[in-house]
Design a protein that fits this description.
By secondary structure, the protein is mainly α. Among the domains are: 34 residues, no CATH class; 60 residues. The longest helix is centred in the middle third of the chain and has 19 residues. The protein is flat.
Amino acid sequence: MIAFIDQRREEFGVEPICEVLPIAPSTCYAAKTQPPSARRLRDEELEGEIRRVFNENYSVNDARKVWRQLMRESHVVARCTVERLMRALEIKGEVVRGKAWKTTFPDLLAPRPLDLVERDFTAAAPNRLWVADIT
């Protein structure tokens, strides 16, 4: 929201924008003057390490393997933090081993039952339309 306010501050001013948005003007000003939090600084440091580990492994590792590699390299970090930062960086492991199991195979040549209601499941009154699905 702060970026939005900064883009339009010359046109409308900070206080009128804040009256419309659910944010206090003091919050807007404080966001610019306060130093970044310890979490934000740590996240910025870890983002570089996560990208490096992810790219070194051909961009296929998931969060658990990236986390384990970081721990081997003496970066003490929680797995949930790695998962959160990988989501924020929009990176994820793409390789999935194993076969996708399909338990049913439909007979494509078998006749299908008629659609008597033509996919319109609204009834004019109670007990006028009964629909069942047996799967």
